[in-house]
Amino acid sequence: MSARVSSLRDDALKLYLDGLRNVQIATRLGVSRERIRQLRSGINSTQPPWPKREWRPITDMAGVSDDAIRGWVSDGLLIASEGGLVKPSDVRLVIKALRDRKCEGCARRLNVTSRHQIFCAKCGRERQRYNYPFLSESAKEKQNAASLRWAAANPEASRQHARRASYVYQLVQKGISRKKARSMARSRFPKETNA
Question: What does pTM read for this prediction?
Answer without folding.
Answer: 0.45
